[in-house]
Amino acid sequence: MTIAIKNVRVEDKLFQNRYLVDVGRPHITVRPHETPSPSLLALTRVCPAKCYEQNDKGQVEITADGCMECGTCRVLCEASGEIEWNYPRGGYGVLFKFG
Ligand code: SF4
């Protein structure tokens, strides 16, 4: 028996997911800061959905649209209070497509 394996990029698979934005109620927020800590700065590199970016002043900002709720940023920065992390309200957030 032969199993066919298709080469599919991770980005293409993630594109299959859908996201319902809860307008005006982001489920993750970044505490205001002047200079980001190394942990906060790391979020710009480790978030698989690329939700974190630095603005022109070097501060880290989040656009939670597209968040996959993986919890990586929560592990790195919630305990220090640098971010506040909650699950989206019911019916909002990521809608995974499996398969
Ligand atoms: S939970 Fe995961 S996908 Fe969502 S913002 Fe944090 S690191 Fe990114």
From TrEMBL:
**Which residue ranges does the record assign to the 4Fe-4S ferredoxin-type domain?**
58-88
Is Iron-sulfur found in the keyword set? Answer: yes
Asked if the Swiss-Prot or TrEMBL record annotates the protein with the keyword Calcium, the reply is no
Q: One Pfam family from the UniProt entry?
A: Fer4_ETF_QO
> Secretion signal: which residues?
none
Its annotated function is as follows:
Could be a 3Fe-4S cluster-containing protein.
The family database entries (SUPFAM superfamilies) matched by this protein are listed as: 4Fe-4S ferredoxins
State the family it belongs to: To ferredoxins from P.putida and C.tartarivorum, ferredoxin I from A.vinelandii, ferredoxin II from D.desulfuricans.
Output this protein's name: Ferredoxin-like protein
| Superkingdom of source | Bacteria
Q: Which GO terms describe its molecular function?
A: iron ion binding; iron-sulfur cluster binding
Q: Which InterPro entries match?
A: 4Fe4S_Fe-S-bd, 4Fe4S_Fe_S_CS, ETF-QO/FixX_C, Fd_FixX
Q: Which UniProt keywords apply?
A: Electron transport, Iron, Iron-sulfur, Metal-binding, Nitrogen fixation, Transport
